[in-house]
Recover the amino acids of this structure.
């Protein structure tokens, strides 16, 4: 689980790498920065937690073949911590943004959504799961 620590709502909190070759990306960042990797099941698939000194710093996952065939390049997505994901996505729309991916649960991790801001830049929104939350009861 990601450690919120001193991170406050509205601060950058997490980063994901969607990779055309997740194994190659994992090897590159391991050699470049000493990041280690730990695979985790979620939503019927697998993603890899990236760690530095045993602490989560982000994650990476393999782009699906249909995404690669459609021309999607490897790309990073930064996430900002929010208290209420539905309110944050509503607010993004009100301010001229667009919701690319509606809020959804990443099992055992968080609830996330992806938006385009008012100038077209992509951004992830991250709502941590309450430690005692029953994920089945989450929207």
């Amino acid at each position: 689980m990601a450690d919120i620590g001193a991170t406050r709502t509205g601060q950058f909190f997490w980063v994901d790498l969607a990779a055309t070759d997740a194994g190659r990306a994992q090897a590159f960042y391991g050699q470049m920065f000493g990041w280690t990797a730990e695979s985790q099941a979620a939503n019927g698939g697998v993603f890899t937690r990236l760690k530095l000194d045993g602490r989560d710093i982000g994650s990476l996952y393999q782009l699906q073949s249909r995404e690669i065939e459609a021309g999607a390049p490897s790309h990073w997505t930064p996430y900002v911590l929010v208290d209420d994901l539905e309110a944050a996505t509503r607010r993004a729309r009100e301010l001229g943004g667009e919701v690319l991916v509606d809020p959804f649960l990443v099992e055992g991790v968080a609830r996330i959504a992806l938006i385009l801001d008012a100038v077209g830049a992509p951004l992830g929104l991250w709502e941590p799961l309450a430690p005692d939350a029953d994920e089945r009861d989450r929207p």
